Every structure is written in C-alpha cells, then in structure tokens.
Amino acid sequence: MKNKRLILVVATLFALASLLTAQCTPKPEATTAPPAEEKVFKVGLLSPGPVHDQGWNEVAYNSIKLIEKEMGAQVSYVEIEETPSVVEKAFRDYAEQGYQMIIGHSFSFQDAAEIVAKDYPNTVFLTSGGEKVGPNLAPVVFKENEVAYLMGIIGAYMTKSGKALGIGGEEIPAVANPQLGFKAGFETVPGNECTLTYINSWEDIGAGKEAAMAGIAAGVDIVVPNANIAGQGAFQAAQEAKILAFGTNMDQSSLAPETIIASTVFDYPQAYLAIAKEIQAGTFKGGKMIGIGLENEQAAYVAINPFFKDKIPAEAMQKFEEAKKKILAGELEVPGKMVPD
C-alpha cells in the first residue's frame, strides 16, 4: 500500500512539474519562411580605354558607379582593346557570370554585342552609340551633333581668325557626327571655316598635341578635341599658344580653366541608371535605338566654363538660344544625325 501511495505522489509531482514547465516555456511565434535571397543586380562595363581619362571612358565608369550607389548593384569593368575577338570574349565572360546588364562603351563594340546577345537572351547588351538592335540589344545614342552645333555657334563669335580645328581619335560616327555638328554651328558666321582631322589614336597625347600645333601654325585659334585621353595633348597646345578650346563628352573645363570655353555634356550616368531600373523591373524593351537629345535638358547640354561666362558675346548667346528652339521644334536639322525620327 505504501508503495502504491509513493508511486501516486511521484506521478502527481511529475504532472505538476510538467505543467509548470509548459507554462514557463515561451510559445514559438507564428513565422513565415524567410524570403528567398534577392538576386543581386550585376552590371558590367567594357571600356575601350582608361576609365579615369576625364573624358569618354570616365563617363561610362561614372555610369556604373551611379548604378552601384543608387541600386546597390554589383558592378565591374574591364579595359580592353577594340579587337573583335577580345570584345566578344569580354561580353561572353560577363554574360556567363550572370550579369543582367552589360555596357559596351564604343560604337565599334556593336558587332560583338549582336553576336553574343543571341546566345544570352536573359542579359541586356547596350552599346554607347551604334545601330545594331535586337530584343535584348540596344544602342544608347545621344544626339551629340545637336549639342555640338550650339557649341559651335559660341565658337563662331569667339574666334578672331575665323578658323577652328576639330580633332578626332578615329573617324567613326560617334566622333565624326558631333564634329560635323560643331563645324556647321561654327560656320553659321560667313567666312568661318572649321577643318576636321583624325589622329587614329585614343591614348597618344603627343599625337593630339601635334595635330593641334599643326592647326595653330595654319592660323587656327580654336581647337575641339574628341579623342579621349589623347585630346589632352590638344588642350596643352592650346594653353601654350594662348588660343581657345572646347571640351567634349563631359565638362572638361578643369583641364584648362582659362582655355576651354565650354564643353558638350552627355549624362550617360543618368541614362544608364534609368535603363538599369527598367531592366531590373523587367520592363526594358530592346529592338530600337535609345536616342537622347536637347529635349532632355538635364542629360544633353552645353556646360559653359564660369571663367568665360561674361566673355561670350551677347549675340552669340542670342543665336545659341534661337538655334536651340529651332532644333527642338524640328525646324532645323543639324548635320551628323544618327537617331531616326
């Protein structure tokens, strides 16, 4: 009998202990499965030259850095020579690594982009300039000729000799067309003449300087280099000869503050950021050229060097504004047009 009572007491104590433990132990919260890790948005850049050239290549580098900052994207770049096989391999390497957006920052990269894009339909291939398009392929084309035309008008009223020289790295549309635009604007003043030359180099600063010096010897008093880092040689020559110059692609006035009157500015970073957001959202549509011009006044414009702001004749700025209005109204078509209506 005692054993039975002992067993009953122990059982009762055990039951009470279990009840107290259950009451003291916190109940698990109702939870949902943790969200799947979001796929990192990855952007690759193929640059045809040094990304800190304070010109063409730097605007592309600034583009991916802005995308990194604004979207938390993973970005990468590679500086490559403009050889078809090298460019194609670089595109493929990024696509194989799962990059959703790849920028080829050269007109000459479009053929390789077209080839590779067909093999990677889930990757968007973009080229800075070009004409090749596809479902996941599009060139981003600024109407550089229009902006350069307006800058040419300023030059037309700043020259004393009536002679200007446009210096291009290579005679490709992305360079020749804005040069044609500047030439047309400069020659709106009767008697003015703008000569165009190409040095077949993007990095030879010496060649840029020699071209400018040859022009200066022939009476040129304004030079307009569009040759990436090689253009810095032209600015050096202009400074030494105490003549004037214009910058291209970005505000280059800091390179020669008392020499460079103004620069054409094309905000590739904002353009590529907008495209990146479309790609990430799944709303991007290829199959056409992406044209950006004076109607996007925050993205394509002439940046006047503050040093020269009060030195530009009022008549020049009046003609500048008149031409801008005509271009926007479709009443003036500037030579060097690339983007179809």
Note down, in words, how this protein is organized.
By secondary structure, the protein is α/β, with parallel strands linked by helices. The chain has two domains: 42-142 and 268-292, Rossmann fold, CATH 3.40.50.2300; 144-265 and 310-328, Response regulator (Rossmann fold). The protein is 42% helix and 18% strand. The chain has helices at 2-24, 56-71, 84-96, 110-117, 144-158, 173-186, 205-217, 231-241, 268-281, 314-328; strands at 42-47, 74-79, 101-104, 124-128, 137-142, 163-168, 193-198, 222-226, 244-247, 260-266, 290-292, 300-304. β8 (222-226), α8 (231-241) and β9 form a beta-alpha-beta unit. The longest helix is centred in the first third of the chain and has 23 residues, at 2-24.
Low-confidence stretches: 1-36
User: N-to-C SSE series?
Assistant: HEHEHEHEEHEHEHEHEEHEEH
Largest sheet: 6 strands, parallel
Multimeric organization: single chain
Number of strands: 12
Set down the secondary structure blueprint.
Blueprint: H1 2-24, E1 42-47, H2 56-71, E2 74-79, H3 84-96, E3 101-104, H4 110-117, E4 124-128, E5 137-142, H5 144-158, E6 163-168, H6 173-186, E7 193-198, H7 205-217, E8 222-226, H8 231-241, E9 244-247, E10 260-266, H9 268-281, E11 290-292, E12 300-304, H10 314-328
Parallel strand pairs: 1-2, 1-3, 3-4, 4-5, 5-11, 6-7, 6-8, 8-9, 9-10
Antiparallel strand pairs: 10-12
Helix pairs in contact: 2-9, 3-4, 5-6, 5-10, 7-8
